[in-house]
Amino acid sequence: ALQKWECHGDTLLGLKNESLYLAVNDNGVPVISKSNGTKSKWTIHGTLNSICSKPYEGMCLNVSIVN
């Protein structure tokens, strides 16, 4: 199912209308997390700019959840 994502604050990318954020676990694998710590902060590749610092038309992310 397609998920809608939005910026939460300046550096968090999360599911729209939820307190769930895109993060990286200790193995470097992207996960959806309730944590808003440093592993949930995202920058634009090659810059120090927050992922939320530039406007966007829409964002689609493919996230696989493995049980």
Characterization of the model:
InterPro entries: Ricin_B-like_lectins. The chain is mainly β. 0% of the residues lie in helices and 24% in strands. It has no helices and four strands. The protein is globular.
**Portion of residues within helices:** under 10%
Sheet having the most strands: 2 strands, antiparallel
**Strand content range:** 15-25%
Main sheet strand line-up: 1-2
Mean pLDDT: 79
Number of strands: 4
The number of helices is 0
Poorly predicted tracts of residues? 58-67
CATH class annotation = Mainly Beta
| Separation of the first and last Cα atoms | 16 Å
Radius of gyration: 12 Å
Number of individual domains? 1
Instruction: Tell me, briefly, the overall form.
Output: globular
- CATH topology value: Trefoil (Acidic Fibroblast Growth Factor, subunit A)
Summarize the structure.
The protein is mainly beta. The protein has no helices and 4 strands.
Give the key terms.
67 residues, mainly beta, Trefoil (Acidic Fibroblast Growth Factor, subunit A), two-stranded antiparallel sheet, two-stranded antiparallel ribbon, 4 strands, 0% helix, Ricin_B-like_lectins
Tell me the layout of helices and strands.
Elements: E1 5-8, E2 12-15, E3 21-24, E4 30-33
Antiparallel strand pairs: 1-2, 3-4
InterPro entries: Ricin_B-like_lectins
